[in-house]
Amino acid sequence: xxxxxxxxxxTVDRAGYQLxxxxxxxxxxxxxxxxxxxxxxxxxxxxxxxxxxxxxIDHRGFAPSRYIPKASDISLETISLxxxxxxxxxxxxxxxxxxxxxxxxxxxxxxxTVSRIxxxxxxxxxxxxxxxxxxxxxxxxxxxxxx
Length: 147
What we know:
- The protein is an alpha/beta fold.
- It has a single domain (7-122), classed as Alpha/Beta hydrolase fold, catalytic domain (Rossmann fold).
- It is built from three helices and ten strands.
- A hairpin with a 2-residue loop joins strand 1 and strand 2 (17-25).
- The longest helix has 15 residues, at 76-90.
- It is globular, with a radius of gyration of 14 Å.
């Protein structure tokens, strides 16, 4: 993945769900922001994009579907597999992930590629370092102490 890429968008089809992906900013490692690509692209501070290549990814709860959605279509495991598919498609080797869940605890292979995870509503207050899916120490993001 080219860390100097400024902005692009794509749509990834996963079992009939159209997952939108928006890439904006520069820096390494990339910051995968999972939830609503449209919403988080609007509310994540521009300052963050000066330090990270922000990759906004829809999860199935926010994505349009060609089918009538069923509750069983959306699980942490399924969302994690979608993120892993997109990570591989973009050729990302190592990333920080931000979202309202802990996908690398669900056996999808993300543990080996996620260097940090941010599990909250504020992007600068709780990125904790993880090693193979287990907390290893506290860290910082843009000078803010992690939880």
